[in-house]
Amino acid sequence: MQENKSSSLEPHSDISIISRLSLVRMKVFISSIVVILACTLQNGYANEPTIVHTKNDDIIGYQTDLARVFYGIPFAQPSVNNLR
After folding, report:
1. How far apart are CA 40 and CA 34, in angstroms?
2. Residue 78 is part of which domain span?
3. For 7-39, how does the pLDDT look when each residue is reduced to its tens digit (9 = 90+)?
4. What's the domain count of the chain?
5. Can you give the C-alpha Rg of the chain in angstroms?
């Protein structure tokens, strides 16, 4: 008697593929959460408030390990018409 080749497939092979995909997705999700938390904690504790005193006013910002950051600094008027 000849054995049927299709019966040699294990019925659990589909479950194995699904569980592998689920495992990969879970690893990617957990890795993403770890990266987000690491960045948040690093930025949350690395920011120190700083004040720069200028001739006209004090500018408040914050300092990280890499740079100082300031928002809302007024710039000169645009160079149009007589200002060119």
Report:
1. 10
2. 5-83
3. 455 555 666 766 777 888 888 888 888 888 777
4. 1
5. 30
Residues 6+ apart with CB under 8 A from 64: 43, 46, 47, 48
Residue type, 48: E
Enter the tokens of residue 20. Answer: 């592998």
Contacting residues for 70 by C-beta, under 8 A, at least 6 apart = 52, 59, 60, 61
Written as six digits, the tokens of 28 are 């990617």
Distance between CA atoms of residues 41 and 29, nearest Å: 18
Q: CA 45, CA 10: separation in Å to the nearest integer?
A: 53
